[in-house]
Structures are given as structure tokens and as C-alpha cells.
Design a protein that fits this description.
Elements: H1 2-13, E1 23-24, E2 30-33, E3 36-40, H2 53-66, H3 74-78, H4 81-94, E4 98-102, H5 105-116, E5 122-126, H6 131-140, E6 143-147, H7 152-162, E7 170-175, H8 187-196, E8 200-204, H9 219-222, E9 231-235, E10 245-249, H10 251-260, H11 262-265, H12 272-285, H13 288-310, E11 322-328, H14 330-342, E12 345-346, E13 348-350, E14 360-365, H15 372-390
Parallel strand pairs: 3-12, 5-6, 5-7, 7-8, 8-9
Antiparallel strand pairs: 1-2, 2-3, 4-10, 9-10, 11-14, 13-14
Helix pairs in contact: 2-12, 4-12, 5-6, 5-10, 13-15, 14-15
The structure holds pyridoxal-5'-phosphate.
Pyridoxal-5'-phosphate binds next to α5.
Length: about 400
């Protein structure tokens, strides 16, 4: 145990130790932290659905009717009506033949990549892709070619280089909206490339689903190329306020995953209450209220990021509700986060290995039910704290 203790002490000295913080109450726009009411700027509950009465009610009703647990893996005895209903609803939502629900986004990415590619195949992966994609690539045993962030010209060169020795699949995988930078993938250009080089295109839309596009179909809808994505991965635990994840795509892909995806096969399936909440969430995203919530979120994004840009901050080119503010080194970043917490704003400082060294940041995530005024004040406080730090 001593060896772990020393490693933890080392992390602490470098300002890199991670600890858990306890909050009280639901994931609303404000939460209680150490008995104090603070503005929550680090939840992915973008549309405010995590504690929405429609989801809570659907979840309670399904739990009363079907019980708490699903009892087993889907392939054993755990495939319930609600699993199939949710998958049909997701396939309709994304206009695909079929969909498969996974227990989390992490389980989905590792299971999809491991299930669809292997030795002899090549995965082309954006350098800023989420950790679960990186782990899925590693688990698959495929050759991994990492391309510079959003750089489709470099990606094309890499695709060309791999062509002569091609033996199996090419798969291009990208976040739709990048989780630490808040910028979007160049999906049209990626779709061009996947067509030119006969590759599959997989988009992880954990942060776009429910939020982006006129009807919340995600980053693909925003760029008008939803139907050119082969593998739509998305999560149910962020904007949709519930829990779990999915792959939407062709029937043959879903059947392949049912047979090969280890995170799907060897894990107890999602419980009824969670499935019912996800169904209610998709109904909400599709409703007039969903549209209203998306508009409020977009308005909040503008208010908050324009204020910070006017104050001279580097926001990493964010175009979404994820708004990172460049701070540089770990020490000052975590001090700024602490000072903001004292001032009533709960925002996370992000350090390596989550982001490259020297690009630490305060990462704000916005919600539809934040008030524009409280976001303006928060932006001013961030500017003030970061200004003081520079002196
Ligand atoms: C959060 C996230 C995941 C993981 O999803 P969970 O359901 O939280 O496991 C995967 N990919 C991206 C881009 C994410 O932001």
C-alpha cells in the first residue's frame, strides 16, 4: 500500500490529485455544496431533464410495474419490452434501421469498437477523442492511426498512406462535439473522406444528442449529414438526463454487436426505470418544450461565451454549450476553481492527462435552465479571478 500512498502524495505535490466532491440535491442549475447554494457549471444535464417530472414519473411507474433490476445480461434473461421499445424509438429518432442500447457511453465505445474492428483493420481517430474511444481502439486490436484535431487534410494523407497495404476495414471515429474543447467535428468533410476511401464513419455524439440541430438529432443534423454517418453512438445520461448509451445504425451492425460486443454480452442490462426515463426524455426532446429548452441553452451559450471572449479569454474555439477557458498550468487552474467555489460557482479545473500539458482550463458546461443573468455574473467573476491570478 505504501507504493500507492507515495504515488498519491506525488500527485498532490504536482497539483494533480483528484478527489470526489459531495453535492446535495438534484442536478439542477444550482446545487448545495457544503451547505452553500452554488451555481452548477459542470453538469452535462444540458437540457435540465435529469430531474424533470416527466422522466421521474416514467421511471417510478416502470419501477413499480417491472421492478428495480433487469436480472441478467440481455442475452441471458434481461431483454425486456422496454429495451426493445427504447431501441425502436432511438432508431426512429436517428432514422436508422436499428439501434442497440449499452449500459453507458464508456461501455458502448469500448464494445462497438472491439465488436466491429480487429487485427487487420485500421481505425483513424481524432487526437482529442474521448478516453472511451481510445480505450475501445486499444481493446479492438486494430491498427490505430491518430490524426491531428479536426484536420481532414492530414487525415486524407494518412488514409492514402494506409491504402496500399489495406487488408480489412477502415473506420474513421470522431466525437461530434469534443468534450474538453466544445468544438464540433468537421462532419461533412469526414463524410466525403469516408466515401472516397470506403471507410465507415463513427460519430460519438455524447454532447450533441438532444442539443444540436433543429430537432436535437445532434451534430449530424447540425451539418446536414445525418444520413452519411454509419455508426451513430450517443449517450442517454447527458442532455437526455437519464443513463446509458446506444449505437444506431444498420441491422447487420446491431446483430454483429449482439454477437461480438463484450461489454454488451457480459454485463447485466439497464434497469426498467432507467429505460423508461430515456423513452420519456426522447419524447421531450421531440416536443415543443424540447425546442424551447434548446433555444434557451443556445441563448445561454451566447451570453456566457460572448462575455468571456469580450474579456479576452481563449475559449478553444468552442461553439457549443461546453465552454472551456484557457488557464495553462495545473496549480493556478485549481486555485482559480477553488476561489470561484468560494464565490458560489462550481466549475471544474481540467488537467492532464485529460487534456495536454500546458492547456489546463476551467471548463464550464451550461444548462437550459440557467438564468442568463447568473451566467453573466459568473463570466464576470471568472474574468476577475483569472485577472488577479495574472498579477
Ligand atoms: C461522457 C462521454 C462518454 C461516456 O459516456 P457515459 O455514459 O458517461 O459513460 C463517451 N464519449 C464522450 C464524448 C463523452 O463525453
Amino acid at each position: 500500500m505504501e507504493i500507492y500512498r507515495r504515488a498519491l502524495d506525488g500527485l498532490k505535490e504536482q497539483g494533480m490529485l483528484r478527489t470526489l466532491r459531495r453535492i446535495a440535491g438534484a442536478q439542477g442549475p444550482r446545487v448545495e455544496f457544503d451547505g452553500k447554494n452554488v451555481l452548477l457549471l459542470c453538469s452535462n444535464n444540458y437540457l435540465g431533464l435529469a430531474n424533470h417530472p416527466a422522466l421521474v414519473e416514467a421511471s417510478c411507474e416502470a419501477t413499480s410495474r417491472y421492478g428495480v433490476g433487469s436480472g441478467a445480461s440481455r442475452l441471458v434473461s434481461g431483454s425486456m419490452d422496454l429495451h426493445f421499445e427504447l431501441e425502436e424509438r432511438i432508431a426512429a429518432f436517428k432514422s436508422t434501421e436499428a439501434a442497440l442500447v449499452f449500459n453507458s457511453g464508456y461501455a458502448a465505445n469500448t464494445g462497438i469498437l472491439q465488436g466491429l474492428v480487429g487485427p487487420g483493420d485500421v481505425v483513424f481517430s481524432d487526437e482529442l477523442n474521448h478516453a472511451s474511444i481510445i480505450d475501445g481502439c486499444r481493446l479492438s486490436g486494430a491498427r490505430i492511426v491518430v490524426y491531428p484535431h479536426r484536420d481532414t487534410a492530414s487525415l486524407e494523407i494518412l488514409l492514402k498512406t494506409e491504402m496500399p497495404r489495406r487488408k480489412g476495414h477502415f473506420l474513421i471515429v470522431t466525437d461530434g462535439v469534443f468534450s474538453m474543447d466544445g468544438d464540433a467535428a468537421p462532419l461533412e468533410a469526414l463524410a466525403e473522406l469516408k466515401e472516397r476511401y470506403e471507410a465507415l464513419l463513427m460519430v460519438d455524439d455524447a454532447h450533441g444528442t438532444g442539443v444540436l440541430g433543429a430537432t436535437g438529432r445532434g451534430t449530424g443534423e447540425l451539418f446536414g449529414c445525418l444520413d452519411r454517418i454509419d455508426l451513430h453512438m450517443g449517450t442517454l445520461g447527458k442532455a437526455l438526463g437519464s443513463f446509458g448509451a446506444y449505437l444506431a445504425g444498420s441491422r447487420v451492425v446491431v446483430d454483429t454487436l449482439i454477437n461480438r460486443s463484450r461489454s454488451f454480452i457480459f454485463s447485466t442490462s439497464l434497469p426498467p426505470g432507467v429505460l423508461a426515463a430515456s423513452l420519456a426524455a426522447i419524447d421531450l426532446v421531440d416536443s415543443a418544450e424540447g425546442a424551447r429548452r434548446r433555444r434557451a441553452l443556445e441563448e445561454n451559450r451566447k451570453v456566457f461565451s460572448e462575455r468571456l471572449l469580450a474579456g479576452g479569454m481563449d475559449l478553444f474555439g468552442s461553439t457549443s454549450q461546453i465552454v472551456p477557458v484557457m488557464t495553462g498550468e495545473p496549480g493556478p487552474t485549481m486555485q482559480a476553481a477553488e476561489r470561484l467555489l468560494d464565490a458560489g460557482i462550481f466549475i471544474q479545473g481540467i488537467r492532464p492527462p485529460t487534456v495536454p500539458a500546458g492547456s489546463c482550463r476551467l471548463r464550464a458546461t451550461l444548462m437550459a435552465d440557467h438564468q442568463p443573468d447568473e451566467l453573466r455574473q459568473a463570466a464576470d467573476l471568472i474574468l476577475e479571478v483569472l485577472d488577479n491570478r495574472a498579477q
